[in-house]
Design goal:
Elements (H helix, E strand, L loop, with lengths): L1 H18 L20 H7 L3 H4 L1 E13 L4 E12 L3 E7 L4 E8 L5 E2 L1 E5 L2 E10 L4 E11 L1
Antiparallel strand pairs: 1-2, 2-8, 3-7, 4-5, 4-8, 6-7
C-alpha cells in the first residue's frame, strides 16, 4: 500500500511540475539560428535615426472620415511636438496606400510644407529652424483605400 501511495505521489509531483513549466528534458537546436534579414523599408521605419529622435510628440489629433462602402478613409492628423535639438526637418510614417493631399505648418491653412517620401516614411522639411525645447505643429491631410 505504501508503494502505491508513494508511486501516486511521485506521478502527481511530476505532473504538477509540467503544469508550472518545469521540464526535465531540454531541447537544444542542432545549429544556431540565423539573424533575420530586414529590408531597407523595415530598417527605415524601425531604426531610431537622428531625424526620428530629434523631436518628441506630445499628441496626435486625428480627424478621420471613414466611408465603409468604398473602403475609403480620409482625414487630417495634427502632430504637436517639442524639438529635442535644433531641427529643420522631421520624419513621420504613413502607409503607402495613403496619398498626401496637403501638408501644413502650424494650422490647417498655414504655410504649406514640402516633403519627400521613401516607402512609408515622410521626410518633412520645416519652414525654418525650430529651436531646442520649442513646440511646433504640423498638419497632414491624407486619403486612401484600405
Amino acid at each position: 500500500m505504501k508503494k502505491i501511495v508513494l508511486y501516486c505521489f511521485i506521478c502527481l509531483l511530476l505532473n504538477s511540475c509540467a503544469i508550472f513549466g518545469i521540464h526535465f528534458s531540454i531541447h537544444n537546436p542542432g545549429k544556431p539560428a540565423k539573424y533575420p534579414q530586414f529590408s531597407k523599408e523595415t530598417i527605415l521605419l524601425g531604426e531610431l535615426t537622428p531625424i526620428r529622435r530629434n523631436f518628441d510628440v506630445t499628441y496626435y489629433d486625428l480627424d478621420i472620415e471613414i466611408i465603409p462602402k468604398e473602403k475609403r478613409l480620409s482625414g487630417w492628423v495634427e502632430v504637436k511636438a517639442r524639438a529635442l535639438t535644433e531641427i529643420d526637418s522631421i520624419q513621420l510614417d504613413l502607409d503607402k496606400q495613403f496619398i498626401i493631399e496637403d501638408l501644413r505648418w502650424g494650422i490647417r491653412d498655414g504655410q504649406q510644407l514640402t516633403y519627400s517620401r521613401l516607402y512609408r516614411a515622410l521626410f518633412i522639411k520645416l519652414p525654418g529652424k525650430v529651436n531646442k525645447g520649442e513646440l511646433f505643429i504640423t498638419h497632414v491631410k491624407y486619403c486612401g483605400v484600405v
